[in-house]
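Researcher: I'm preparing a figure for a lab meeting and need a structural model of a single chain. I don't have an experimental structure, so a prediction will have to do for now. The sequence is pasted below. Please return the structure as tokens so I can convert it later.
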Amino acid sequence: MIRNKILNIYKNSNRYYCTIKNNGKAVDLVFNTQNPTNGVKNSNEIKNIIILHGLFGAGGNWRSVSPKMADLTNCNVIQVDQRNHGTSPHSDEFTYKLMSDDLNQLINKQSIEDLCIIGHSMGGRVAMLYSLLNPTKVKKLIVVDISPSELKSNTILEFKDYLHRMKSMDLSIISNRRQAEDWLEPVVPDKGVRLFLLTNLILGDNGKYYWRMNIDGLLNNIENIASFPSESEIQSLKNSNSPVQYTNDTLFISGGKSKFIQERDLPKIKQFFPNYKLEVVPHVGHWIHAEDPLKFVNIASTFINKN
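Model: Understood. Here is the structure written out token by token.
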């Protein structure tokens, strides 16, 4: 039985999270499960779907699409907060390997089987690495608008600018979200991105705002997520010299207005995921599931349901 897990930390204090030094160990991730409500018996090979959000996100970002996906696939949809995000533990360590270990610990502790993983952006890379390291545990894989190639340096610099601006906000004088948005605007001119970042600004029970995201932990480790591990690095993690591949069905979904999957990325995708298909949604950007949730759910559910 998959249990919902609720974490309440320091509810009435000014400091809501403490950063742990876990010395390369996995952390227990917080998650929420959306079960199907249509009463239809699941006859598919997939019984559970884990969704991994991107940088600056949280499992709750997927709450709006999860009920429809659960009913269309007759699967349990598990929305996960990754380390340093949402209400999962804060850590001073932040790598794709550690996030893959966190996911493995969740899957093992909750005895999750017959699994499809959906990962968006950073979460897509965690999903890719986990599937390459544990191919027998993942029946299908969906990667949303990211590739196993290196991010451009200006993208990482932009992420750093966001984090520095968020860190510099004096939360003691912020009394409403509009003030916070005005503070971000000089560095984050896109209103949609500002509002997305502000999903991490939480009003505590003491009437003060706080960042639920571990800003320092992300700033200090942002370079670690700039590039996907190489084949030799993954071979070292697997303690094997065999070619690194996930051969089950894999779907890459790309936004037509996004630049995160390019033509030049396809050979590397093919190398790691030889049975992949690419579907482009022409009219959307990076946040496909938010910009056209109905289209996204239909694409993902069709792929999951296909035996």
